[in-house]
Amino acid sequence: MQEMIGNTDNHTNHALGEMLDKIAEHKGCGTSGGSGKSSCGSSDGPSDMAPEVWEKVKNHPCYSEEAHHHYARMHVAVAPACNIQCNYCNRKYDCANESRPGVVSEKLTPEQAAKKVLAVASAIPQMTVLGIAGPGDALANPAKTFKTFELIQKTAPDIKLCLSTNGLALPDHVDTIKAFNVDHVTITINMIDPEVGQHIYPWVYYKNKRYTGIEAARILTERQMQGLEMLTAAGVLTKINSVMIPGINDKHLVDVNKAVKSRGAFLHNIMPLISAAEHGTVFGLNGQRGPTAQELKALQDSCEGEMNMMRHCRQCRADAVGLLGEDRSAEFTTEKIDAMGEVVYDAESRKTYQELVEAERVEKVAAKEAALQELDVTDVRIMIAVATKGHGRVNEHFGHAHEFQIYEVGSFGAKFVGHRRVDLYCQGGYGDEDTLPSVVRAINDCHAVFVAKIGACPRDELKAAGIDPVDSYADEFIEESAILYFKEYFAKVCAREIEHRARGDADIRQGAFTAAA
Questions:
Q1: Which one of 67, 240, 383, 439 is separated from 21 by 20 to 30 angstroms, measured CA to CA?
Q2: Domains of the chain
Q3: Are 73 and 131 in contact (CB under 8 A)?
């Protein structure tokens, strides 16, 4: 394993003195750094969550970071119309190579959607959640949305139902949402101040009238807050999506965070603006930039003390299928599903498969708990990038990674803090040397990158950039591996600092001796 002490950053160097003092205070023996019971990892549920809430989130990949390693979701594109216009949205049709909200390859009727759900659920037994997220707004198309839910409830009652909405029509449909046992609703809330909102929303269409400017934003935020309060009162879990737009609402989202928490939101997902001219959006055409990964993390960190933050969102297409971070929708086009003939829904096989998944989750939590034992207390933290195909394991080749999951690691354990999309390095069996620098830049704030395999060229490039390429944890659980790596790293840092201090003391004594002579 590469010697990393020489690459320790300024923040780590600054913390070393305090760290060694803390070790002395603890007589070299710290606490375990936390039990990890609040991370949605145990099949019994975390200690700080009511059992009924845990039942709703434990296998929902969007509402539980830990669950997203194991469970899949799908969206059906039955809701084409929208009742507001956002400056970051352009609902293009048939854009199969784009991965962003509002994009679909084909629109479905409720009947087509129901058949697709059965086909996907039979082929992907870990698919536990059906969502309606567009390509417009689920509640601007209430008849199609609720007809789809009705059909799914009859044929696949074990699948969780959820929807996403901008919230304008939400107060009018809370009773229906509750009646269909929709336990999860996502509301996109980008502002609570109409002065800010006027720069995000050109218009809203409400009660057969189009409103613009500050008046449009005022109506929207009032309806969103009303709908959120009604969902909370009805016992429906809510996730709030907010798009971070630098210079427009980035600082304001701290106030949004406090407002939605006070109204009972369960989870807040602050997402980066996706902005490119080729998308045809207002922000894309006027050059509005999106936030950097570091800016996004800083905002998420500042809001985390207020409520739970979602950091594993992939800003999915409105027809996404599979685990978060992958898209298998091309396998389930209407043409291919029609060619399958009758689809037999096997609920028992799905249940058996999911029981195996739960057993793996328990094993993963136990491994993390064991790794946390006897970890010294310290304020030092490092970031680790991980190439993974899912199941919470280090199981992807460096050259095959479309993204890296980012973990912050310290005496508290390993905490997922985000993901970085990258261009594919390995093309047709060969590494693309032009792509490698951009991949390195995407993870250049990480101390190490965990991979299942890595070639000699990218290994050397990463080392030159001060990033430790680690393939010794191939196929092992991510969190356990990250904690074990941190233990070794921390021990090296301590040893090197003690060595430096001793050498400095010797130099001082030698200098004093020379002066006296």
A1: 383
A2: 5-33+375-496 (3.30.420.130), 62-340 (3.20.20.70)
A3: yes
